[in-house]
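Reproducibility note. Readers wishing to regenerate the assembly model reported in the main text can use the exact inputs given here. Chain order matters: entities are listed in the order in which they were concatenated for prediction.
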Amino acid sequence: MSGRAGQASLLLAAALLAAGCASAVTRASTPASAAEPPSLSTSLVTSTGTWAVAVMGGSAAQHNNFWQLFVRPTATSTWRLVTPPGVASNGGLVMASLGAGSVMAAFRPSQDLSYSPLATTHNNGGAWTPGLLDAGLADVPDALAATVGGGHLLALLADGRAELSGPGGTAWTRLASYRALAASAAGRRCGLGHLTAAAFSPAGVPLLAADCTRPGTAGVFAYAGGTWHLAGPTLPSPYVHQIVTVLRLTTAGGTTTALLAAGTGSAARLLAAWSTDGGAHWALSPSLPLHGAKLTSASPGPGGTMAVVRNGSYAATVAAGGPWRPLPKLPPGTATLAPGPAGGWDALAVHGAKLAIWRLAPGGGSWAAAQTINVPVQFGSSG
Amino acid sequence: MPGMNSGVNINDPTVVAAFKSALLHQGIIALLIFGILGLAWLTVRAWWPAPAQAGEQAGPGVQPAAAPAEPTWRQLLRIGFGLIWIFDGVLQAQPKMAIGLPSQVIQPTAASSPHWVQHVVNWAGTTWSYHPMQAGASAVWIQVGIGVWILAASRGPLSRLAGLVSVGWGLVVWVFGESFGGIFAPGLTWLFGAPGAVLIYCVAGALIALPERLWYSPRLGRAILGGLGLFLVGMAVLQAWPGRGFWQGTSHGQPGTLSGMTSGMAQTPQPGSLAGWVNAFTRFDEAHGFAVNLFVVVALALIGAAFLSGQRRVIRPALIAFTVLCLADWVLIEDFGFFGGLGTDPNSMIPFILLAGSGYLALTPGTVPAVEAASPAAATAGWRDRVRPASLRRSVATAGFGTVASVGALGLIILGAAPMAAAQASHNADPILAQSIAGSAAPLNFPAKDFTLTDQHGRTVSLASLRGKVVLLTFLDPVCTTDCPLIAQEFRQAGQVLGTASKHVELVAIVANPIYHQVAYTQAFDRQEYLTQVPNWLYLTGSVPQLQQVWKNYGIAAEILPAGSMIGHPDIAYVIDPAGHVREEFSTDPGPGTTATKSSFAVLLADAARQALGQS
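Running the prediction on these inputs yields the following C-alpha cells for the assembly.
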C-alpha cells in the first residue's frame, strides 16, 4: 500500500472511530433546578361564584387540547361551562378577579397568535366583553392580577416584562422589565431567576414574584416610591441555604398569600405565607415535603387557604396560621381543586372531553361523585 | 428543520402528475438531443471522412489508433458505477420523489446528526421543497447523464472528466442528500451503509479520473485494497465498541440497535418474501445478538487485515468472503435499499463489491502503453492548434460513438441542471404546491358587491374607492391562531412578489370575527404579522351588522364555536379586477403553512393579480 493511501485511510478510520466514540458518551446529569410554578389549572373565588380552569381534550397534540373555564355560582352546587367564545384557548386561560363578582379571563398565546385577547364577565359568564393585551401573557397561573376594585390590571408577560393598565384594561404601560428588575438593588439581592407571578397588595401596590438564585431569599418584590423592594417573607434557619421559588402569589379578602418551594429535587418542601400589609410582615406555615413529586396544581381559597395537588393524586390544604392537612387520595384525572359549596372541596377530574366533579365534605373521608359535564371540544378546529 | 418539509402529501396527485409531465417533456428533449447528435455525427462522417494517415492528430477525447486496452479494473469500475448512476437516476424518477425526498429521506437521515449538519442539510432540503418539480427532474437527468457519460467514454480527457463530474455530484449528494453519509450520527455502522454509498461513488469517480500513466501500476491495486482494508478494520473496532447497542439483540424488552434498524427496514413497502427474510434476520439477531455482532466484528477485521496484506493469495479468498458478506448484508440488513417508492440508490454493498473487485484486478500488472508517446503531433500540439478549423474538422470526423454519446450525456446533465439553476434564481416557491393544497381557482366575471368599512387606521374605505386597482380580498379573524396569520403572511409575500406592480394592487382583508372585531384587534394583528409597513395592506372592520352584510355578500359564514374554539369561517380569496369585477375565487386554506407553501401561495396570489391587471 502506498504511503499516501495509507495516511488517508488512517485519517478516515480515525474519524469514524471518533464518531463512534462520541456516540457512546452519555450525557452528564445536570444539577437540580428551582421548582417550577404549577400548571394553569387552578381555581378562583369571587363574591358571586367559584371559578376553575382546566385543560381538556386529552390529546398528545397541543392544538387539540382546549382550556376551559367553569363556574359554580355562589349558593349553588352545580358547575357549568363558561369558556369565553371567539378565541382558541389552546395556549391556556388565566383568570383574575376584578371585584364585585366580575372576572377577567385572558387567553395565552398559541401557535401563530402572539398576543393575549381578554374577556370580562359581570354575570358569571353569561356574557363576555372583549378586551386586549397586545402582548403574550406568561405561562403561569398568576400572570394576571387586578386591584381590589378592578381599577388597575397587572400582567406578567412571557418575555419577562410586567405591564400595568388603567381602568378597564386599557392603556397598558410598562411597569418593569426583567432586565431592569434584575439590575435593581432588590433584584441583585435576590439573584433574580424567572418571574413567576404578579399580584397587587391589599392597598393596590404592584407585586411581582420570582425564584431567586441567592439561597434563602424569597423573591417577592413590591413597587413603591418608583423602585422595587424585596418584600418576601424572611425564612427560618432551616431554609437559609436553600433555593426558594415563589410558586403562587395572590391577594384576596385583604390577605396576600404566597406559596413557596424551598429546596430542589426530592428535598423540596412547600411553605405557605400570609401577609395583610403588602409584605411588611408575613406569617409562615409549617413545611410540606414534596418527596420529589411535581406540583400539578395550586388553588387559593377563601381566607388565605391554599390547596395543592401533587402528581395529580395527592392533595393537601393549609389555612392561615394552621398546619397542612392531607386530603383523601384524589379521584383519577384530577386537574385541580376548588372550594366546594359547603366548605369542603371539589375535585375537577378531566377525562378527555368529560369533566367529572367529585365532592369532599368538610372533614370527609372520601370523594363523592357530584356532577359530570360533557364539554363539546371542537377537535381539529385549531390545527 | 421547519423549512425542509413542504407539508404537501408525497402522493399528491397534482404534484405527481406535474412531475411525470415534466419528466416526459424533458425525456422527449433528451431523445431529441441524442437524435440530433447522432444525425449530425453521421452527416459529418459522410461529408468529412476520417483521415487514414497514421499519426494524424486526434481530437480531445478521441481514442488513439493504437492505444492499449483499458485495464479490466477500470472497466469494472466504469461500467459498474455507470450502471449504478443510471439506476439511481431511474429511482429518482419515482412519483413520490418530488415531494417526498426532502421530508421522507433527507430530513430523517439528518435527524440524528449534529445541529450543524442539520443546518447544512436543511438549506438543500428547503431549496428542493421550494422547487420540487425542477429539483426532482434535475436529479434524474444529472444522474442518468453521469451514468451514460461514464459508460460511453472509455478513455481520454472526456472519460477522466466524467470521473471528476461523478466525484462532484457525488459529493453534493453525499453532503446534502445523505447528511455526510451519517458519519456524524451516533448509530454509524458499516452494516447500514457507512460511510454512505455515494462516498464510494466518489472514490470510484476519482479512480476513473486518474491519468492513464497510473492505470497500469500494481501499487494502485494495493492502495485501493489497503485503504479499504484500513476502513474495514476501523469499522470492526467501531462495531465492537461497547455501549452502542450492537452486542445486544434486545435490551429491556426492546430491539437492540441492529434488530431495531432491520425491523424498521422490514416495514418498507416491498415484496412480502423480502420482508420475510429481513424479519427472519431480525428475529435471529434478537435471539443471538452477541453472536451476530461477534461474527461481523471478526469478519470485518479479518477481511480488512487480508486487504492490508497486499498478497494476492490472501486477498483472493478475502475478496470472495467480502463479496458474500456484502451480498448477505445487502439482502438481510440493507433490504436492497431501493424499495418503498423513495429509495434513492441500492445502498453501499454493491459499490463496496465493485471497489474491492477493481482493487483486486488492479493488483495484476498491466502493460504500460507505449503509444501515448507514439503520437508526437498530438503531444506537441497546443490548444491553438486543436481549435483550428481543420483540426476541429478532423476531430469531429474521427470522433467515435463514445465521444458522441458523452456529449449527449453532457446535454442530459445540462438538461437537468439548467431548469434547477433557473429556479434557484428565484426565492419564490413553485405555485404547484399551493395548487395541490387549494385546488384550481374558479374563473368568474361578475360585479363585486360594494362595502364601506373602517381600516386599521380608523379611516373609512369603500370597495368603490379602490376602483382602478386589482383587489385581492380575503377574510381574516384577528385573534385566530392558525390559518389567518398564515394567509396574512402569504398576502404580504404576494405584495413582495409583485414588486413594482404592487402599487396597482390592494391587499384587503375583512375581519371575520363577530366578537373580536374592533380596530384595536386589526392593529394588534398587523403588528403581529409585520403588516404595519405594507403600504397597500388594508384590514377592514365595522360594526357587527356591517360585517354580517359583507360576509353575506361574499358567502362567508363566521360561526361562533363553543368550548374554547376559534371562530369558524372559510378561507377564501377573491380577485377583483380594476373595473370592480370578481375574476377569480380560490381557496386560501394554507395547508401546513410551511415556508415553501406560504411562498407558493404568495406566487399564486401574485400571478392572479397580474392576470387581473392584464384583463383590465
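We highlight two features of this model. Chain B has three domains: 69-210+381-426, 216-372, 432-615. Chain B touches chain A through 57 residues (CB under 8 Å).
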